[in-house]
Specification:
- A hairpin with a 4-residue loop joins strand 2 and strand 3.
- The chain has one domain.
- By secondary structure, it is of the alpha+beta class.
- The longest helix has 13 residues.
- The protein contains 2 helices and 5 strands.
- It is globular and about 35 Å long.
- A 3-stranded antiparallel sheet has the order 1-2-3, with helices on one face.
Length: 86
């Protein structure tokens, strides 16, 4: 897997910070974020697209990012597009 580092929470200290990478080989964006609380997961599960499963499967999870990372998320999307992942 060839991950391309895109960015990290600009207000990070030393450890455990939301981070974004692009994986060109697997055509994916990779995220490290804060774990969602049980209440947030439940709310997400309740607000899904019509006809979509209403529970989060065991092989998936919800992660949170601070709004200050929006420019980094945009950069990751641009990098994925420029790499021809779409």
């Amino acid at each position: 897997m060839a991950l391309r580092f895109i960015g990290i929470d600009p207000e990070t200290q030393q450890q455990g910070s939301p981070t974004v990478w692009v994986d060109a080989e697997n055509k994916e964006l990779v995220f490290q974020g804060w774990k969602a609380s049980a209440a947030l997961k439940e709310e997400c599960a309740q607000k899904t697209a019509p006809g979509h499963a209403t529970e989060i499967p065991d092989h998936e999870d919800v992660v949170r990012f601070p709004a200050r990372m929006i420019p980094i998320l945009r950069e990751a999307c641009d990098a994925a597009e420029q790499a021809g992942l779409l």
